[in-house]
Write a structure and sequence with these properties.
4% strand; mainly alpha; two-stranded antiparallel ribbon; single chain; 79% helix; elongated
């Protein structure tokens, strides 16, 4: 028998106990990875309404959105890592772990797509509009 946090457990219970922690961490991180891109979009819209329209401030808003999406990707990767640790440690069917895996994959997609579009925009917009977007003729 092993004592963990004042509770007597056998070895199997100990593995299941720590496996449950990994599963719950996976689920929480997965949910956060889904919420962050949407939270970033909401914050960007609120800030856009509050500040004047200048190019520098627009760039700062896009960088803030980029940061939210980058953190979403990081959280999604951590969710998938925690799911892998749960699978290695416990491996029994667990609804928290499966939810963490699914949410981590969804959060990874929601975080990576805007990042790719942002990077492509930073690369190709100066090529398409060499004089800048604000200096278009007409």
């Amino acid at each position: 028998m092993i004592e963990i946090r004042g509770v007597q457990m056998n070895r199997y219970d100990k593995k299941s106990y720590y496996g449950e922690d990994y599963a719950k961490r996976s689920m929480i991180l997965g949910i956060c990875s889904i919420a962050l891109p949407f939270l970033g979009a909401i914050v960007m819209q609120i800030l856009a309404l509050c500040i004047d329209e200048t190019y520098t401030e627009d760039l700062m808003l896009f960088i803030a959105e980029f940061a939210f999406n980058a953190f979403a990707v990081i959280f999604a990767i951590f969710a998938l890592v925690q799911h892998g640790k749960w699978k290695k440690y416990d491996g029994l069917k667990n609804k928290y772990a499966e939810a963490g895996k699914i949410c981590g994959i969804i959060g990874l997609v929601f975080g990576i797509i805007p990042l790719i579009l942002f990077i492509l925009g930073m690369i190709f917009l100066p090529i398409i509009f060499p004089n800048g977007i604000l200096n278009l003729p007409g």
